[in-house]
Amino acid sequence: MSEEKFHAFPPESIFEPPLASVELGIQHDPALTPPETTVRVDEEKLKSAVRVVEKETPLEPQLMLEPESTARAWVTTASREREVTPAVAAVLAGPESEFPEIEIKDQKNKNKSPVTSFVEESNKTAYLSVPELRALEDLKHLVAKLNRTETSIWGVPLMKDARTDVVLLKFLRARDFDVYESFSMLRNTLQWRRDFGVDEMVKQDLGDDFERIVFMHGKDKCGHPVCYNVYGEFNNKEVYAKAFVDEDKTLRFLRWRIQFLERSVRKLDYSPGGINTIFQVFINVPWCYLVFYSMMSPFLTQRTKSKFVFSSSKKTAKTLFKYIQPEQVPIVYGGLSSDPCECNPEFTINDPATEITIKPATKQTIEIIINETCTILWELRVVGWEVGYSVEFIPSSGYTVIIQKTRKILPTDHLIVSGRFPVGELGKLMFIINNPTNKKKMLLYRFKVTQYTN
Asked: What's the rounded Cα separation, in Å, for the pair 257 and 405?
């Protein structure tokens, strides 16, 4: 077995009320209950008193055949242990915590670079090369002649402040810093915006019939806002009729789409060094669109193509997690993020999650070692489910508290499971996932600790 390594500090001695029951729902012995129902402990001490161990073991044959079984055999051969992940560390360590920096030792993936959508080019003039800086100044000279009346684009008035440099650099990069081609592109764009009435369109009420087709949600791993384009929604005849049944409806949808994009880009930060690009995700797009894109792909720069991701319905979660953290991905596409009115109020889009791949015919165990009395809350999902799921708490005295009996969860049962447990006696909380299938499964989980409440 590999040597266990943890980054945690030994807890101070405090009152430790023992658990009086081994099954939830049984009342504690009043004689063993502490005088106060709430033990107030320093929050930073709670965070540093929790550590995580992830173990992977071969699934026993009887568990593969009977996923609902409550058997809990412990197999230590071929186990894999690793230290707490940065995502969990972010939860446990507050902004002023002394929790040490943590390094995951994963030999298999140590040479792999993280996948990101695209890296925002520097929009600070100090980082431009001499030819690029000269091209920017030449373009500004041409725009100054054009800008006899006040002109703006995306809500940014041209030639007024440093944001002008950021806007003009977008046109220069789109034309490989060819000044005259960039100026022609800018002039044509400004003319089209006037003809189409974009600035006036932003203020209009065009309804919300298409908000499930195109919407903004979360950020990618580089901090760019993400725009989801779910054109598979047009398979619904009613939705399709609202957009394409006649020329007037098609024009209305086009105006709504332009208005949505314009409102979105106006929210970006065009100051030097700001995030001023949107990451576009296309889900379940029609096959004809994919054919068109594949034909045009050779004529697009890598910089342009890196801002778009296409995903099919079967591989949506796997594709999105390459570029977007699971807690930022909507629940419907395999992530943990939901609308504020629907979500677990204990967790938000800002609470990081840990991602684990569960191999076929494997039992994945997550042990949360708790060295302080506290209340622990968690949220967990397996993309596609079809696995056995159970939760146990094992106090240091050795018996087992069954929080959730082993049961098989189907994709139609739950998208996310959550819970909370008051830890009155020190020990470890265990999430056990049995994957009896011949497919890899993606496990997502996150947790937080709060003050102990009986």
From this structure: 49
The contacts of residue 351 (CB under 8 Å, 6+ apart) are 91, 327, 446, 448
Name the one residue in this structure whose structure tokens are 């797009």: 285
Q: Extract the tokens encoding 454.
A: 């009986």
* Residue 347, CA distances (Å) to 12, 271, 330 in order: 28, 32, 14
Q: How many CB atoms lie within 10 A of CB 324?
A: 27
Share of the chain above pLDDT 90, in %: 49
**Chain segment 378-437, per-residue pLDDT in tens:** 999 999 899 999 999 999 988 999 999 999 999 888 789 999 999 999 999 999 999 999
3-state SS record for the chain: CCCCCCCCCCCCCCCCCCCCCCECCCCCCHHHCCCCCEECCCHHHHHHCEEEEEEEEECCHHHHHCCCCCCCCCCCCCCCCCCCCHHHHHHHCCCCCCCCCCCCCCHHHCCCCCCCCCCCCCCCHHHCCHHHHHHHHHHHHHHHHHCCCCCEECCEECCCCCHHHHHHHHHHHHCCCCHHHHHHHHHHHHHHHHHHCHHHHCCCCCCCCCCCCEEEEEECCCCCEEEEECHHHHHCHHHHHHHHCCHHHHHHHHHHHHHHHHHHHCCCCCCCCCCCCCEEEEECCCHHHHHHHHHHHHHCCHHHHCCEEEECCCCHHHHHCCCCCHHHCEHHHCCCECCCCCCCCCCCCCCCCEEEEECCCEEEEEEEEECCCEEEEEEEEEECCCEEEEEEEEECCCCCEEEEEEEEECCCCCCCEEEEEEECCCEEEEEEEEECCCCCEEEEEEEEEECEEC
- pLDDT for res 118: 58
How many Å apart are CA 334 and CA 220, to the nearest integer? 15
Instruction: Judge contact between 454 and 422, C-beta under 8 A.
Output: yes
Q: How far is Cα of residue 70 from the mean position of the Cα atoms in its chain?
A: 33
The two three-digit tokens of residue 152, written as one number: 């703006």
Whether 84 contacts 92, CB under 8 Å: yes
Residue type, 63: L
Of 91-105, 190-204, 298-312, give the lowest mean pLDDT range. 91-105
Read off the pLDDT of each residue in 139-167 and give the average, rounded to a whole number: 88
Contact 252, 305 (CB under 8 A): no
Give phi and psi for 337, each to the nearest 5.
-90, 130
